[in-house]
Amino acid sequence: MFDPEQAVPATADAGIGNMVSDGVTRRSTRRRARRYATLAAGWALLGVGAVLLVLPGPGFPLVLGGLAVLGREVTWARRLRRRLEAKVLRRPQPAATPPPMRGLDVRNVTE
Hints:
Elements: H1 10-13, H2 16-54, H3 59-70, H4 75-90
């Protein structure tokens, strides 16, 4: 039979061990929530940037921003962002004035 005098009250077990595990659980839950929020924000920026590559808008900066946010959590995004930035920085800048045309000068042609 059950003897209530021999039963250990539930509060007696709730010593330091439970407080530590509660703190660890709370901390890991916060980390997990932060990770999921970061991943969601990164994917959202990446998706909107991909759509704006086709539509008028700042698509490429949003793609880079999405990769930067995702890069905080996943390595492939960090590497892809670095590769894309390196390609953009290597691209030659367009000249301020177009080069002179060679060949037939159509400005002085009379009929």
